Amino acid sequence: MKISLNWLKKYVDIKVSDEELVRLIGARLVEVEGVIDETHKYDKIYVVRVESAEKIPETHLTLCQINVGADELVQVVCGAPNVREGMLAAWIAPGAVVPASVKEDAPFVIGKRKMLGRYESNGMLAGADELDFGDDHSGIVEIDPEEARPGDLLADVFDLNDSILEIENKSLTHRPDCFGLIGFAREVFGILGNEGEFSEEELSRDLLEPKMRREFLHVEKDIKIKISDPKICARYVGLVLAKHGEIKKKYLTFTDTVLAKAGMRPVSPIVDATNYLMLLTGQPLHAFDYDKFVQVGGTETAEVNVRLAREGEKLELLDEKEIELAPFDIVICSGDTPVALAGAMGGKSTEVDENTKNIILESATFSLYNLRKTQMRHGIFSEAITRFTKGQPGYQALAVALKCAELLKDGFKFATIADEYPDEVVPSVIKISTEQINGLLGTDYSEELISKTIKSVNFEVSVRGGEFEVKAPLWRTDIHIPEDVIEEVGRLLGYDNILPTLPLHATSSRNKMWDLKTRAREIMASFGANEVLTYNFVSEKLLMKAGLSAENSYKIINSISPELQYVRQSIVPSLLDKAFVNQKIPYDQFALFEINKVYQKAWGLDAEEVPVEKMQMGFVVAERKSVGTAYYKAQKFATEFLRKLGISAEYVSVMRDYDGNMISANRGKKADYDSIMIPNAVIMPFEPKRTAEIFANGVKIGVVGEFKNSVRRNFKLAEYLAGFELDFDAVLGLVAMKKVGKFGAREKLDETVETAGTYAETLKKMQEKYPNAEITPVSIYQAEGSETKNMTFHVEN
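Request: output the structure for the sequence above.
Response:
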């Protein structure tokens, strides 16, 4: 997203430097990826009046004498068909760079030259494409004589000496209001504190209270709206406008320059108006041809029906691409016939063109979850759907539609309106205290400062005895709990202004799982294994390659990619996927491991009604040239790993009975997978005849084995391939059962011994002192002339 600093300053009186403003925005609002300097892009480009325009015989060229605000006229040869005497145009003077070429490796510098060998041409009269205001090459731009005079700098007339902020969209995903200039300006005002003033008058004039007379025409242009489910469309405003004249785009406008700075191109008066308001407010709009809409639906008046698409339905979009709709796609229908893919793109059948007499102006909000799926399925990444997928609220839909009608009043008059708003949004009201705010932030902010800060971003605040009642504005859909308000205070006043201090609380006990994982990493690294970290989300294809069923995985509703649609059941499939990458490089032999959480539907929900999660460690060993039995190498890794933790492992062979159920061969009974932590999903990738369950103290803690040939082929791996997966919750239970010894509640310590003896003698004494501990030397120090040494040992139980 691109933000014009000049446009921003129209709403906020900024009293800090641009550099400081960018720093504050980056620290307190959103990451600024870069700043595009356009302060010299339009140097030496002037507004001029064409005083005479004579056609050069037998050519398409015109010999022009232009008034550049000086005593003498300047001669320019122009090839544009629309050049004429008396018009104001944009002149690129000799020595200036053509704006459209400034980003090229060799920018085009205009000079003086002779045309046709006899006509001297000084500079050029520029078109919209050359000025980087669009792709229109049909003629030169014309400037409104009421807005400028000959000799004015084009940059001064249209506020072009600008800096453009390139905003990182992902960090604003929860703030749909900031995807419009007005919402962004509100936030900038808030983070500036006393360093700026917010132009409420300017804001009101531009949006909140559009001064438009609703002139109802004596025409029958009715509209009805039906929303099948408020969950897919919270609000839909349909505004019917009837044509009463031509909107002829004659002059270069401020809207043209705003669109260009945002990276958009002018299209037509209607489309430009909707795009301008989307950039201003964050609310996307769409225009339908009213008469085509009615014709498609076969109705007398417009009947807008917002519903989910049905299996097998198809729709031709504005780009003339026909798509097959999915059941999660939201469609706008005329009657029951789809005419637009909601929030994404309009349909060809209701396209506005030069013959359009009446339009339906749509201002609505749609489910961000459905639109994210639509976006990925159909590959549509427009400015509009980008905003809808952030969860645009419906509060401003009517105001923006009315403002658009006002912008189009020269060609269209207001006919009628329909506004369907089933579940009107109620602002969040949160109660919080000064003590809560300062307690969480670690600050000592006064009641007055907190109140002023929150009010600066349009929250309504009432205070009584240190207790705040905070009412969030309608556009702040991210405010729900007290912590959200606390975050606002910390963010707006600057986290960098909070003095870092250690929290004062009772010393908590060590996290035993954290210690186990740390120790496990140390052990596996000492064995030469490499730790990897992969996504918890996997594709259905990966599950199938490992022989697992996607039905046992939780599916992500709004996944960011088709490759990340399911929460994984097991660690091993992800390791096999990375093993393929490493063998392809190629590495002839390697071992990979990962410690992470897994989830399965078979485990159900916990007491808090959320999916049960397990901590597991997966391991894979692969070699390209070995011909031995891989099982024993994987078993050796498992045995030594557990021995280092003080756990003695027992391996019980796994086979299948005639029904295909895995059984423990040495125990002669079906494995009870509902009562153990290592489920069937973990065992599935392994070859039953070369797989064993791992037991310790009678507790099943994992599985080790070679992988099925089908799994190995699916991942395109060499034959020498084996691995294991351990249940770390069960392993932790066994580690906790070990005798603590002389440490008491401590698990690790460093002890320094002053001695005149040898290292071997001292180590033996330490081993006698801590018989159940693992003792390793840290350092030996002997001062010059001293008869004793200081030996330091690390002791770990």
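Confidence is low (pLDDT under 50) at residues 208-219, 665-679, 739-746.
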